[in-house]
What we know:
Elements: E1 4-5, H1 19-22, E2 24-25, H2 35-61, H3 69-85, H4 87-90, H5 105-142, H6 149-177, E3 182-184, E4 191-193, H7 197-226, H8 228-231, H9 238-269, H10 276-294, H11 297-303, H12 308-317, H13 332-335
Antiparallel strand pairs: 1-2, 3-4
Helix pairs in contact: 2-3, 2-10, 3-5, 3-6, 3-10, 5-6, 5-7, 5-9, 7-9, 9-10
Amino acid sequence: MGNRVLRTMDTIPVPNSSREILLTNVDPDTSQHQASLIVFFLVLQFIGLFGGIIIILTARFYSPIQRHATWYNFMLSWVISSISYTLLLFGGQIDLSGDSKGVPFGLCVLQSSVIYAAPPLSAAAVLGMVAQIWFSVHLTLFKKPFKSQKLLTKLLLILPYVLFVAISAEALAFGLAQPDSVRVAGSGMYCNSGLAIPGRISAGIVAVVLFPAVIIEIFLVVSLRKHWDVFKSPGSNPSRTNGMLHTIIRVFLFSIFGIFALILSVFFFFTIHHGAALNIVISIIPVVAVCIFGSQKDLVDAWMFWKWDWVKKRRLTHSRTVSESDSTLGSPISLYDEKDLPPLPA
C-alpha cells in the first residue's frame, strides 16, 4: 500500500500544510499482533459489555433505588463502547493468525467509524453524571436548584448520543471517501483508519469534554470540605447524605481513570500507532466501571439469590427511598423536589 498522500479536490499544493499529514494513509504496524493480547482484549471487552448489561437490568428491575438517568447513560456508554470494539468478533472476522485480508469492507468501515465515536460518548456520559452530582450537592447545600438545571440536565443526557452519531458520521465519511485507509489494525483487535484525522478529532473532543468534568470534581471537593458541617448536621437526612457521599467517592475513584483517559486522549492526538498493550489498558476502563458501580449494595443484594425474599420485601417497603448504606444519584424524593426532576428512564 505504501505511504501515500491522499489529495483533496483542489490540486493546488499547500506549502508546509498539516493537511497532508492528516490525510496521509499509514500502513498498519503488524509487529503489534499477538494472539494472546487479542484474546485478553476481547475478554475485557466482554466483561464490560455483559457486566454493564447485567448491572443496568438489575438496577432497573430489581433494585429498590430509583436511579437518575445520567447513571444509566454512564453505564450504557460503556456497553456501547464494548460493542463497538467487538464488532469484528461478532462478525466472525477475528483471525488470531494475523491474516485479516478477508474482512468485509462494510463491517470494517462500520467498526472503524464507531470506535472513534465511543470515547467521546463515554466522556460525555461521565460529564453528565459528575454534573448531576454537583447539582445534587448544590441543592443540599443551598436548598435551591441551579438556574436552568432541567435544561442543562436534558442537554447532558442527549450530548453523548449527539457526539456519537456526529463523530461516527464523520469517520464513516472519511472511510467511504478513502476506502484504502480502512483496515484491520496492526494489533488485529479491531478495524480502524490509517488516516490521522479521525483519531485526532475523537481525542480532541474527549479532552474538551473531560476537562470540565475534572473542574467540577475540584469544585465538589472544595464544597464538601467547606460545608462538611451541613452534611453532618443533626437536621440532615442520613440516608440521603450517606448515599450521596458513597456515590461521590465512587465517582472520584473512577475519575482517576478518567484523568488517565484525558492524558491518553492527548497522546492519541499526536499518534496513530499506539501499540497493542495500550489497547489493553484502555479496555480495562469499562471493567473498572463495572466493578466500581456494580458493587453498590443494593445491586449486590439483588444478586444474592438466597436473600431474594428479603430483597423483594425491601423493595416493596422502600420502593422510592435511598438505601441507608449505599446509593447512586438517588431517588427523586431524596435529592430533588419532584418539579425539579428531569425525566427518569421508562
